[in-house]
Design a protein that fits this description.
The protein is of the alpha+beta class. Helices cover about 25% and strands about 35% of the residues. It binds adenosine-5'-diphosphate and magnesium ion.
C-alpha cells in the first residue's frame, strides 16, 4: 500500500520558480505519467518525491506521513534514470543483488529474489555478463531489476527508455506495462512523449512551465482537454485550432472559421452551451482533431466545398490539408481518398468531436455535443 500526495509544492532554483503550487494525489498501485515538454519541471518533481531535491514550500506525503524532511534513503523509493547507472565492474547478478547486500537477508534469500526479478524481466540468461556486454535495452532491464528487487514503496522512472531506438522503445514500453500489471507498485513515470504517456498511464499529469495543466485518464485528456495547451500537446497529428465565430442560423448553429465565406452546421445547443459558459464572441477558438474533419468527394447535405492542399500519405491513412477561409484544417482520410493537391472536395465537422476554447485564457468552454 503506497499512496503519494503532493500538497502546495513550490520549488525555486534561485529566483526561478520551476514548480508552481503542485497538488496531486497518487493512489496505491497507480501508474502515473508526468508528461510535458523539456524543462517544464518533471525531473525536479520526481527528484523532490524521491528526496534528492528539497522543496521550498508545501508537503510531500507518503501514506499520509510528511516526508519532505526525510533523506532519500529513508523514503524507500526507487528511481530509474535515462542513463543506466550500472556498476561496470559487477556482473548483472551483482548489480541486481547490490541493494539487497545492505539488508539482513541471507545469501539464499537474496539469490531467490535476484533470480525471480531476472525472470520477470527476461534477463535470467544474462546474470553472469558484465554491463559492457549488454545491449541498451538489456542494460535498462537490469537497471529496472535493481530498482525493483528491494520491493520499494514506489518506483519513479525518469525517461527510462528515452535513449533507446524506436523499435526497442516500443518493446520496452510493452514490457514496463506488463511488469506493472504483474508486479504492481505505485509508479510515477516521466516522459515528454505523449504516445508513451497514452500507452502506459492509468492517469496522465500534464505539466507546462511548472504548472499542472490537467490530470486524467488517457481518454479524458484526449477527448476532454482542459485547455489549448493540453489539446495541442496530446494527440498526433495535432488538433486543428482556428479562430471562429458562432451564430444561430435558422434552427441550427453555424460555426464560421475566420476568413471563410460559409459556416459549418452545428446543433443549436452549441449556442446555449457557449452562453452558459459565458463565452465571448471575438475570443473563441474551435478545436477539432483531424479525425473530426469528415471529407466527401461529392457535394452532400451539411458539407462545404474546400480545396485540398498538401496530402501526407501515412500508410494506413492520409492527412490532407483543406483550405477553409484563411485557415488550413487537417483531415484524416482513408489512404488515397483525395486524389491530388488542388482537388475540390467537401468537408463537414463532427460536432461530437469539436472543442471550443476561450482564446484569452486558453481554457476549454466545456462544450459537449
Ligand atoms: N540544479 C538546478 N539548478 C538550476 N536550475 C535547474 C536545476 N535543475 C533544473 N533546473 C531548471 O529547472 C527547470 C525544470 O527542469 P527539469 O525539472 O529538469 O525539467 P524536465 O525534467 O521537465 O525537462 C528547467 O528550466 C531547468 O533548467
Ligand atoms: Mg527531465
Amino acid at each position: 500500500m503506497t499512496q503519494i500526495e503532493l500538497r502546495g509544492v513550490q520549488k525555486f532554483f534561485g529566483a526561478v520558480q520551476v514548480i508552481k503550487d503542485l497538488n496531486l494525489t497518487i493512489a496505491d498501485n497507480e501508474f502515473i505519467v508526468l508528461l510535458g515538454q523539456s524543462g517544464c519541471g518533471k525531473t525536479t518533481t520526481l527528484r523532490a518525491i524521491a528526496g534528492l531535491e528539497t522543496i521550498d514550500e508545501g508537503d510531500i506525503l507518503i501514506d499520509g506521513e510528511p516526508v519532505q524532511h526525510l533523506k532519500a534513503a529513508h523514503r524507500d523509493i526507487a528511481m530509474v534514470f535515462q542513463s543506466f547507472s550500472l556498476y561496470p565492474h559487477m556482473s548483472v547478478y551483482e548489480n541486481i543483488a547490490f541493494p539487497l547486500r545492505a539488508t539482513r537477508k541471507s545469501k539464499a534469500e537474496i539469490d531467490g529474489e535476484v533470480r525471480s526479478v531476472a525472470k520477470v524481466l527476461q534477463i535470467g540468461n544474462l546474470l553472469d555478463k558484465k554491463p559492457s556486454a549488454l545491449s541498451g535495452g538489456d542494460m535498462q532491464r537490469v537497471a529496472i531489476g535493481r530498482a525493483l528487487v528491494r520491493r520499494p514503496k514506489a518506483m519513479l522512472m525518469d525517461e527510462p527508455i528515452g535513449a533507446l531506438d524506436a523499435k526497442l522503445r516500443e518493446e520496452m514500453r510493452a514490457e514496463i506495462k506488463r511488469l506493472h500489471v504483474k508486479q504492481g507498485s505505485t509508479t510515477i513515470y516521466v516522459t515528454h512523449d505523449q504516445i508513451e504517456a497514452m500507452s502506459l498511464a492509468d492517469r496522465i499529469v500534464i505539466m507546462h512551465e511548472g504548472v499542472l495543466q490537467q490530470v486524467g485518464s488517457p481518454s479524458d485528456v484526449y477527448t476532454r482537454p482542459a485547455n489549448l495547451f493540453v489539446a495541442q500537446f496530446v494527440g498526433s497529428p495535432v488538433m486543428n485550432v482556428a479562430n471562429a465565430a458562432v451564430a444561430m442560423n435558422g434552427s441550427g448553429a453555424r460555426v464560421t472559421v475566420d476568413g471563410a465565406a460559409e459556416g459549418f452546421r452545428f446543433p443549436a445547443e452549441l449556442v446555449g452551451q457557449l452562453d452558459a459558459a459565458k463565452a465571448q464572441q471575438g475570443r473563441l477558438a474551435l478545436g477539432i482533431r483531424p479525425e473530426g474533419v469528415l471529407v466527401s468527394k461529392a457535394a452532400a447535405d451539411g458539407y462545404l466545398p474546400v480545396e485540398a492542399h498538401i496530402i501526407e500519405p501515412l500508410g494506413s491513412y492520409d492527412i490532407v490539408d483543406l483550405k477553409v477561409g484563411g485557415q488550413m484544417l487537417r483531415a484524416r482520410t482513408r489512404s488515397g481518398f483525395v486524389g491530388k493537391p488542388g482537388d475540390q472536395v467537401f468537408a463537414r465537422l463532427d460536432p461530437a468531436q469539436a472543442h471550443f476554447f476561450d482564446t484569452a485564457s486558453g481554457n476549454s468552454l466545456g462544450v459537449r455535443l
